[in-house]
Amino acid sequence: MDYKILTTDGTARRGVIRTRRGVINTPSFMPVGTHGTIKAMSPDEIKELGAEIILGNTYHLYLRPGMDVISRLGGLHQFMNWGGPILTDSGGFQVFSLSAFRKIGPNGVHFRSHIDGSLHFIGPREAMRIQGILGSDIAMVFDECIPWPATHEYASKSVELTTEWARQCKAAQNDGQALFGIVQGGMFKDLRKRSTEEILGIGFDGYAVGGVSVGEPKEEMHEIIYFNGLLLPPDKPRYLMGIGDFGDMLKAVDAGFDMFDCIMPTRNARNGTLFTSAGRISIKREEFKYDSGPLDPDCDCYTCRNFSIYQTFFRNMREAIEKSTFGEFKRKWEEVFDLRKN
């Protein structure tokens, strides 16, 4: 994998990630294929929207349909009929957020499936083995995503564990598969700095910041995003995990981040909330009952003219960075979605 910065506008970066299965223009948003598919959309529709990479959830794919099924069908790309790059998370976030029972140890986590209550174990080496079977282009290290709020003592122990697991993942890295390290540390800057230094010391193909947007106030999250973004090396991709709010992503790009993922676009669409260049629309409101006009007159995609605001948003953002007008672009979107107070 190779990363190159094409241009910058302040601390915002316009770059390109080259993988074995294609190019990713950054800043980039990754649609989430929880069970190997983007809900309610086909791979062709995803491509038409301009998405160049998608994210697969290791935890969900491991439990259902399972590694035996995906392995026999030729890996995740074949399973979901997607020829472009795929990034898989390690399963750590879901283990800690979805499992009713979990026991953390130095070698990994024992947990019960949220589906049927069956007992499982995933540790660093297991996470790498599973991601190897999936055959993703970019894998993530196994980490502990702590809840908010958390004490400094607990967060410190979690950083220690995350670093050790990162070392084990690095030792078990699959041939031909890029591997990203993950920085943790909660809302504590000293722990964020320590975690960053330790993860950088191991050395990875890219670096992610995890443990944000877990319930903390927006002000604290944005402060950590800017703080941690400046600590990461400029020659590697920077991935802010689990972020999909426009205001948060604008601030993150301003802090130098390149990659994002979130279930927000498909979840909002399924619930009738749409995002346009003029702001949010709740399509279930009575006023739209007999409205046959386009969702967004300024967008020429199939859905808006007759799902694509996120890909349009990032395409326009990349163009703004190239033209050194990112600040103006950021202000416009903050005004449209009333994001300045967030």
Question: How does this model look, in words?
Answer:
The protein has 342 residues and is an alpha/beta fold. It has a single domain, classed as Alpha-Beta Barrel (TIM Barrel). 39% of the residues lie in helices and 22% in strands. The chain is built from 14 helices and 16 strands. Helix 9 packs parallel to helix 10. The chain starts with a strand and ends in a 6-residue tail after the last helix.
List the main descriptive attributes of the protein structure presented here:
single chain, 342 residues, alpha/beta, TIM Barrel, 8-stranded parallel β-barrel, 3-stranded antiparallel beta sheet, globular
**How many distinct folded domains?**
1
**Shape field:** globular
Order of helices and strands: EEEEHEHHHEHEEEHEHEHEHEHEHEEHHH
**What is the level 1 CATH name?**
Alpha Beta
Question: Short description, anyone?
Answer:
The protein is an alpha/beta fold and 342 residues long.
List the helices and strands and how they pair.
Layout: E1 2-9, E2 12-19, E3 22-26, E4 28-33, H1 43-49, E5 54-56, H2 58-63, H3 67-72, H4 76-80, E6 86-88, H5 92-98, E7 102-105, E8 108-112, E9 119-122, H6 124-134, E10 138-140, H7 152-171, E11 178-183, H8 189-202, E12 206-209, H9 218-229, E13 238-240, H10 246-254, E14 259-262, H11 264-270, E15 273-276, E16 279-282, H12 302-305, H13 309-322, H14 326-336
Parallel strand pairs: 4-5, 4-14, 5-6, 6-10, 10-11, 11-12, 12-13, 13-14
Antiparallel strand pairs: 1-2, 2-3, 7-8, 8-9, 15-16
Helix pairs in contact: 6-7, 7-8, 9-10, 10-14, 13-14
